Amino acid sequence: YLGAGDGETYVLTIYRHVWPGIPVEVEMLRTITGRFSPELVAHIDFEHDGKRYILGSVRRLPTGMNALEYTRMGIAAQVFTHSQGLDLGQTLRFIHDSFLMAFPYEWAPAETVTGRLEERLNAFTDATPRLSEYAPWIRDWYRSIRGEVLIHRIHGNVNLRQMWLDEDERWVIGGWAGDVRLPMEERARLGSPLEDLATLQRSLFWACEGNKMWCIKAMAAIFEGYGDPMMTALFSAFVLDRACEEAADHSSRPDGRPELPFEFLDWFRDNALPTRDTMSPSQFLRSAQ
């Protein structure tokens, strides 16, 4: 971290592994400019054998309150600000629309998208046998989604730890390196923008310590700002995928809390599953052309 005379703070990132081309973080921050993302001030280039490498980058660090801290304070005080949820939804929509204009996109067969979710479910179930009792209805949920799904570049790691509410009450989204658990080439894959919203939903769920009503109110405001119905079959599929991943991950950790994702799956089965066939359509899912 670097302090500057103008009172701003900057973060210098030196990449441990380099490869030819432009890292996801640099590519994204060069595309998404403005108040919604940390400013990319500079990056360090190196050329070898005619190939260009990026060795590091310098970004301006947001100065506002971290969203995770802000959310926990709101829950403790039983305070919820609807307008800030709206603003966050509008910010995420602006970012996704910018991706749609800047990068390639396609309408992919729903079977391709949900097939990947099924493969992940199989892996989670193999690792965590307790998920076997949930797998049949989750798999049926995935297979109920038909048509074509809009996919394009997405953030890949939208969570409260990577967000700030600045002094002007504006949201700043960080974490542009994508899901750092994935190989570099997979971080730039095409995905549904609803995947980012599902990742955010799970982050909110954990911050709420299982307080489902607070989480539902927050996500409803975010979706209102985003401009798509919250309870759609497609969004719910991505939420189920994330919850199963959490159940498998926390079941394998000595300090894990698998009871939280399993309680969520129980709640979803009892409350959302019966409404699947009457859920609102999403603009990100269309009939096959």
Question: Would you kindly provide a written description of the structure presented here, covering whatever features stand out?
Answer:
- With 289 residues, the protein is α+β, with helices and mostly antiparallel strands.
- It has two domains: 1-61, no CATH class; 65-286, Aminoglycoside 3'-phosphotransferase, Chain: A, domain 2.
- 44% of the residues lie in helices and 17% in strands.
- The chain is built from nine helices and eleven strands.
- Strands 1-2-4-3 form a four-stranded antiparallel beta sheet, with helices on one face.
- Helix 4 runs parallel beside helix 8 and helix 8 runs antiparallel to helix 9 (259-271).
- The radius of gyration is 20 Å and the shape is globular.
- 35% of the residues are buried.
Q: What's the CATH architecture of the largest domain?
A: Alpha-Beta Complex
Low-confidence stretches: none
| Terminal Cα span | 51 Å
Please list the strands of the largest sheet in the order they lie side by side. 1-2-4-3
Give the helix proportion (percent range). 40-55%
The CATH superfamily of the largest domain is known as Aminoglycoside phosphotransferase (APH), C-terminal lobe
Overall pLDDT: 90
Largest sheet features? 4 strands, antiparallel
CATH topology call of the largest domain? Aminoglycoside 3'-phosphotransferase, Chain: A, domain 2
Any idea how many domains? Answer: 2
**SS class:** alpha+beta
The best one-word shape is globular
Radius of gyration: 20 Å
